[in-house]
Amino acid sequence: MVNFIFGIHNHQPLGNFGWVLEDAYERSYRPFMEILEDYPNMKVAVHISGPLLEWLEENRPEYVNLLRSLVRRGQLEIVVAGFYEPVLAAIPKEDRIEQIKLLKNFARKLGYDARGVWLTERVWQPELVKSLRQAGIEYVIVDDYHFMSAGLNKEDLFWPYYTEDGGEVIAVFPIDEKLRYLIPFRPVEKTIEYLHSLDDGDESKVAVFHDDGEKFGVWPGTYEWVYKKGWLREFFDRISSDEGINLTLYSEYLSRFKPRGIVYLPIASYFEMSEWSLPAEQAKLFVEFVETLKQHGKFERYRVFVRGGIWKNFFLKYPESNYMHKRMLMVSKLVRENPEARHFLLKAQCNDAYWHGVFGGVYLPHLRRAVWENLIRANGYVKIGTFVRDIDFDGRDEVFLENESFYAVFKPSYGGALFELSSKNRAVNYNDVLARRWEHYHEVPEAATPEEGGDEGVASIHELGKQIPEEIRRELAYDGHLRAILQDHFLDPETALDEYRLARYLELGDFVKGAYDYSIFDGGVTLWRDGRVSGRPTRVEKSFLLEEGGFRVDYTVKSDARALFGVELNLAVHSVMEEPGEFEAESFEVNDPYGIGKVEIELDRKAKVWKYPIKTLSQSEAGWDFIQQGVSYTLLFPLDGELRFRIRFREL
Fold first, then answer.
1. Is 143 assigned a catalytic role?
2. How far apart are CA 13 and CA 573, in angstroms?
């Protein structure tokens, strides 16, 4: 007889649309637990994230009552994590402990004293042991890939182990990767056969499945397969009645058996994450490498040595995520002793908006907006003022300005541009705009999955090959720079809007990414650069002042070059889908009713304005997402020796 632990992890990101939660509830969360209720001998370890629990408590209290009932019947073991589903390795230890305690408190409301942790995205680093033990945690669940990365063989991975850091010890259960690809995508018989094959007479042997609950109804094709065709009922019936399988829970197992020994796990996550977290060029090579090993029949033999990147690589891959993360760390220090402010800060640690894999993640504006909203609200409890510091740890200082209404952060080293303009009143960052970038899967049709696909059952989203539709490919463009407000361009006067928006134009100057000098004055900053345009000496100076309702900036440009000077403002317009266009105006309004709201951009003279949506191509569980990350507004002025003008930005 082999021991078997079956677990699910249900999560919805902070800021997700209500209709998405409603759909997931009807297609997965509700039918799963209702069917479980029909099989009293079936046991499930379940983790439900805080954002989802808050929604369930408010909108579906009957579901929370069902959870309580299943706990009382001994069918559910509640496994916790950080309440707002942070990657624990990416947040300060003080916040880790608070996050876990919040979810443990909720578990007690369900009637369960939780002692185990579902590690968000299975992102492990050794020093987590101390934080987990301090939070009262006795065991943690990670992938078998972590253990193989430590040098253990696959056949050693059917037992939990102890791991230790600084004298603190915790039990670690490995999730069986083969089960992750069998359940629920292949016929039940395949899982039964596999579990039976593990039985060698050792009564302490345990196989663990613990994976996304959304695989049971939300992932493409699974609702029909899992519920309409009866996969889940057959699974519960056969697993709970098979005499060769001892269905158990983590706590039950640990009450009967001791972990097998000690292991030291390296920094790791699951195998697919090691592909996704690599910079795009390296990720492409990683996929090629895995496929080459498979073609030569050597992958299984050498896979323990196949490792890509780690989760924190996403901060290298997406500088916008890195900046958001480092602002979160900054605010965490500021509000640690303020419980009200800290509540918002903990929400801003929800992991989804900080990375990207097979789901939208950082590419989804509404998820980033939720992080920024809570960061700004938390930050609002403390006054910071003006300072100069390397906020995002890129080795170059930022200039941070604050007044009663706004935070403004300039990067003098990167075009002297405004990389954060956060409104305290609206709790939005007007520059929450993601650059258009090439991803390795734009060329690689297959992901580096450790398991081969099969003809039976339903395809996992990791097995779905995708071709970019031609109508998207025509509009696809990649930026050579990050997106900001007050970015300074020098263009050939013959440049057309389509060339500009599709990044098929020539930048005549060295100002967009060039370093600016700066000096700070009360409430503002003056930035200047002496560079070259078409080989000719050119000077740009901009003097920025934060005002009560926005900002004003005075420009002086001096050059003998023949060019158009353009000031680009990238604004986080997410709820109104824009089309490319050009017009002349002294002032114009931008209205994004479900996003940044309404603002006005005013000039002291008439100028030509180019606007276009900034659209990125990313993959998701449903296919391709061509998403508007914001709208670019570029104010254009003919350059003739010397140019002076003023721009004013204000909230309406």
1. no
2. 21
